[in-house]
Amino acid sequence: MVSNQLLELENFIHKLSVEDKLWLLGQIMVQLRQISETINDRDKAADIQYDPTVKPIWEIAVQIGANIPESEWEKVPSDLSKNFDIYQG
To answer: Average pLDDT in the 48-58 region?
Structure first.
C-alpha cells in the first residue's frame, strides 16, 4: 500500500516543470549511486577471508618499535596512553 505522503509527493512532482523534474531525477540518481556504492563496499568487506599466514599487527608494531633507538623512546611521555588527547594538541 502506498502511503499518503508518497501520493502527495507524486501529485507535487506532477506539477513541476520538465526542467525541475529532470533536476529531481538527477538528485535521485546520485542518491541511488551512493547507496549502491555503500552496499558494494559492504559486500566487498564481507568477502574478506582470514589469512592465518599474515603476521599479526602487534608483531608488526613490535618490529617497528625494535628499530627505534632507545633515546627516542625516552622522549615518549610515560602517561601517553592515558593523556593521548592532551598530547595531540
So the answer is: 90
d(CA 66, CA 59): 11
- For residues 80 and 87, is the Cβ–Cβ distance under 8 A? yes
Question: pTM to 2 decimals?
Answer: 0.44
Pull the grid cell for residue 46: 564481507
Q: Which residue has the cell 535521485?
A: 28
Question: Which run of H or of E encompasses 6?
Answer: helix 4-14
Q: How far is CA 75 from the centre of its chain?
A: 34
Of the CA atoms within 13 Å of residue 47, those in its CB half-sphere come to 6
HSE-CB of 67 using CA atoms within 13 angstroms: 5
